[in-house]
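Can anyone check this?
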Amino acid sequence: MVTDMETHFEKQDLSTPLRNPAIRKAIRMLDLPEGSDGLDAGCGIGSHTLLLAEAVGPGGHITGLELFADFILNETDYYAFFTYSLFEGRVAEKEVRDV
């Protein structure tokens, strides 16, 4: 587990411009139907959740689930157009907490 969250987030920000094109390409290859719903279990900071939400469009919904609330990103204005939720919890649990 990462103990220095600030350092982790800084490294994540630095690598985003390098990673996002490859991740977007992989998501396109999934050929997700526009308007579909999905679950990003173990979503971490939610970066892939946001890219998945972008792929399914405003008619779809992606739910990100992460065990540690500290990892979950805050919404950004760009992604406010897409429908997604980020929760803290475990996949095996029926109850999760909205963050």
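Reply from J.R.: I decoded it. The chain has a mean pLDDT of 76.
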